[in-house]
Amino acid sequence: MEKPLVIGKATKPLCFRNMDIWKLPVEWQSNKNAWMTSKIMEEWLIAFNGRMKKQNRHVLLFLDNATCHPHIELSNVRLTWFPPNTTSLPQPMNQGAIRTVKMHYRKLLMQSLLANMNHITSVSGLAATMSVLDAVIWISQAVKKLLPETVTKCFERAGFSTGEVTAGNENNEIDQQDLQNYMNDAGFNNCNADDYIDIDKDVQTEPDTMDIDALVKNIGESWKGDKEKEEEENDIVLEQEKCRVKTYEDAVNCLKELQQFALNWNDADMLYKISQAKVIAESQAAKSVTCVQKTLASLMKQ
Asked: Do residues 128 and 236 lie in contact, with contact meaning Cβ atoms separated by under 8 Å?
């Protein structure tokens, strides 16, 4: 599965400060407005074409006539365009795929809010418990929950039917009810999960027209705006500076405690995932052992 492309406002948000951005579970791009631009789209298409070429695959990619979609020729990806001013009906991603990803994302977000609510005394404090890093992880997890049969059904609804009815294995209704339950638990009893899922449907994500002057101005402002945005995000991640886990050895000890917690609560899924993290932490801790520290041989002699 392709990494989702996420566009933010800062080149490297402070919460990414010690990370190699290329190792994130998403592909990170940025500009001042967090918009999709023709430059970002063209770079993504060229990289995607390269990946398809290595896999010896040829792809037909349908695009609408958004100004950010460049008309370019590629070796392994053929771009095909919907007619101008086409409604969302013939566009497969608008037949449920995007909405499904948003539903899973908002469910993870609401779950996090509930988990931190009892320890926070203000809305700003609650907001500070979340970072851009959390958001990109939730986006990655939400995209992974998008089933192949869901995508196939979206193409069928848009008129790309092959004549065969795709068997359903979707739990969207259950997941949406879970989201509604989370919202009710958080005190949003008068809010509807449907409305919450689509809350950002009118948010602008690209320039309205190909205004060259505005485009040049936006690029120039984005260069000088990155530092300002990173400074703004500094306030959001201050709590993360207080992290008490300084070394991989500290991380191993914390994960041991979490393992015991999972055992006490008989949570097999949590135990499995924590154990995986513990193996990774132990692997890194083992690399940091030097001759100055205790060795296995010295311990065995005691």
From this structure: yes
* Euclidean distance between CA atoms 188 and 109, whole angstroms: 14
Please choose, from the candidates 233, 206, 242, 238, the residue with its C-alpha nearest in 3D space to the C-alpha of residue 12.
233
Which of 145, 148, 136 minimizes the C-alpha distance to 104?
145
Rounded Cα distance between 175 and 105, Å, is 11
Number of H helices, E strands in the chain: 11, 4
CB 67 within 8 A of CB 207: yes
- For residue 266, is it left (φ>0), alpha (ψ between -120 and 50) or beta? left
Among 228, 222, 223, 230, CA closest to 15: 230
Nearest to 30 by CA among 19, 40, 38: 40
> What's the token pair of residue 287?
């690399």
pLDDT tens per residue, range 264-273: 999 999 999 9
pLDDT in tens, 189-247: 888 999 999 999 888 888 776 555 555 555 555 555 445 454 444 444 444 456 789 89
Q: By three-state DSSP, how is residue 186 classified?
A: coil
Cβ neighbours of residue 34 under 8 Å, at least 6 residues apart? 7, 8, 9, 205
The C-alpha torsion from 224 through 225 and 231 to 234, rounded to 10°, is: -140
14-23, 112-121, 164-173, range with the lowest pLDDT? 164-173
β-strands 59-63, 77-81 pairing = parallel
Give the pair of three-digit tokens for residue 62: 């349908």
Q: How far apart are CA 9 and CA 272, in angstroms?
A: 36
In the predicted structure, residue 171 carries a pLDDT above the cut 80? no
Q: How far apart are CA 261 and CA 272, in angstroms?
A: 12
pLDDT at residue 85, rounded to an integer: 77
